[in-house]
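Suppose a colleague, Dr. K., hands you the sequence of a protein chain of 85 amino acids and asks what its three-dimensional shape might be. Before reaching for any lab equipment, you can write down a predicted structure in token form. Begin with the sequence itself:
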Amino acid sequence: MWKLIGPDGKSYDSKKIGSLGGHRRGRIYGRLDCRAALQAIARGGYVANRVFFLNEEDARSAGYRPCAVCLPEAYVRWKATNKSA
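The predicted structure, expressed as tokens, is then:
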């Protein structure tokens, strides 16, 4: 079983592996091979706040934004609709 975050922001057990990782405190999601996330994990401290999502829809619904490093197109679209961010 995998522990994922659903669209309501609550965790649940899933038989499917999450396709995206995120950071709970930063409210950011991105690809599992994201260079920025892997660097943060290597420095330590990031792992305690690591969360996983089944897909982008769940991540966005839970209030997370796309990573500017590994999802630049999605980030530009998010930024355009969130002027106060």
